[in-house]
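Translate sequence into structure tokens.
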Amino acid sequence: MIHKYSLNGYKIVLDSNSGAVHLFGDAPFDMLDYLADADVPEHPPETMMDALKDRYDDATLREAYGELRELFQ
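Result follows.
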């Protein structure tokens, strides 16, 4: 289970299973709203990509999703 919040301009994600605390960038932080706690599929969900395409370019979204996949594996 993860908890995400912003504090003083920092985007913080706490992994309560491992106790790890991560500082996130804007794109991966926003992506967490579209993903289940323990499920980051191999390919980014289209609903997430469509929802975020107006805020971030495709390269940023794909890079951010790759970083999320690494964290969840």
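Note: The mean pLDDT is 92.
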